[in-house]
Amino acid sequence: MTTAEQNPAQALEPEVPERSRWMAVSAVALGTFLLVTAEQLPIGLLTSVGSALSVSEGTAGLMVTVPSIVAAFAAPLVPMLVGAMDRRILLLLLMALMTISNLATAMAPNFAVLVGSRVLVGIAIGGFWAVASGLAVRLVAPADVPRATAVIFGGVGAANVFGVPIGTLVGDLTGWRVAFSSLSALALVTLIALLAVLPGLAASQAIRPKLLMEQLRNPGVRIGIIATVLIVFGHFAAYTFVSPALQRLSGIDERYVGPLLFGFGVAGMIGNFVAGAALSRRVHRSVLTISIALAVAMPLFLLLGRTVVGGVVLLIVWGLAYGGASVGLQTWMIKSAPKAVEAASSLWVAVFNLSIGLGALVGGVIVDTLTLQGVLWLGGACALLAALAIWTARTNDALR
């Protein structure tokens, strides 16, 4: 696949060793690991932060909500505002912002300052993701793009499996301020790694509102956006309440929920790399399979998840399937818009983050006003609709 995004003048120079290319991919993966850890770490520290700053746990939850919403808007806005700035410089600046903002969180004298620091975290997350999510086409040979994309998104799974639990443990043992200080230190390490191995990445084209809107006229991009909204919205509507589902439906003791969620994260990492390998052969079939697996796994909880064994098996299947969703959908966007990867990725990151927040919000309303089972039906129905949308693109040669 030869595209404007893979022009030799914009990618790594031919004489640069392949090892250096993959070191750059690994550094970006470290960045994604940090982003997800920074976004989700407050989930495990809400009680301690709320107690220290004299706010309720519900109010402290703004530490998660605010950066997610800000990231959704920052994803398209940051590339537009920086114009033709070298993407290497942009990524370095955003990682520097992440370093400073997490240090500001750790030192916040009150909750208002803390929320302000989380706004900066959201800007860094959205801007970095918008560029990094489609960066594989700039760093490796065309045949290696799916594998490199899987490595970059491997940072997401690693954050859920290792980053957030370890950060929470550090916060429990030494205090939440130390946890965020450690996150700032990790951001600095990531900044140094990116500075050392990331090549110059001249902007292939300036991102303008017109270019973003043009992507929505691309049938492949449009279906990718629809599928992303449905899959991510449905997943988070249901997964946000997976702990009570395991306890009430499967009869699993609360003590074992944590280890099971760890298993979900490990399964997600495996699913990420399995999907990466499959996507190098068949994009459409791989993404369709992921959607169908999610459409089956969530509702099946209501039938086969009524026992401990059934609940555990379905949780692992769910983790395997959703683990491949990010790399699958991002690869879909790359294939659909090869000459405007950054613009398409910006839209994708924006709707991805919005869908996370909206899914959790709607899921909460359903659990409070209807039933816990309702979110599992909703998650399955959304995945099924996504599968139907993806199926309609079966004749798109670029996605085969």
From TrEMBL:
Main localization of the protein described in the UniProt heading: membrane
Membrane-topology annotation of the record: Multi-pass membrane protein
PROSITE patterns to which the protein is assigned, alphabetical: MFS
GO CC term, one of those recorded: plasma membrane
Major facilitator superfamily (MFS) profile domain mapped to chain residues: 24-398
Keywords: Cell membrane, Membrane, Transmembrane, Transmembrane helix
Name under which the protein is recorded: MFS transporter
Organism: Streptomyces spongiicola
CDD domains recorded: MFS_NepI_like
Localization: Cell membrane
Alphabetized InterPro entries for the sequence: MFS, MFS_dom, MFS_Efflux_Transporters, MFS_trans_sf
One GO MF term: transmembrane transporter activity
Transmembrane parts of this sequence: 21-38, 58-82, 89-113, 119-141, 148-166, 178-202, 223-241, 261-279, 286-305, 311-334, 346-366, 372-393
Top-level taxon of the source organism: Bacteria
